[in-house]
Amino acid sequence: MLKFTSPGTAGVPDRVLITQGGTVFVEFKREGGKATPLQKAVMRKITNAGGHCYVITSREAFTELFETVSAGGRDAPLRA
What's the confidence (pLDDT) of residue 34? Predict the structure, then answer.
């Protein structure tokens, strides 16, 4: 997993998860946390361009996403 930075562009997801099964963008939030309106807008742009973005709020959710993406699936129920 790589830390994702985009100088001059706010609201990008925290990390990029790259596996043999695919690549997805991940925003980590505390339990009960939500993406900001700006983060949601950036994630919509990514998904509209064919990318996959997720908001993860627990270790279990990340494990589920990692296993799903690693197995070649990208449509985990956590999609933002």
Answer: 93
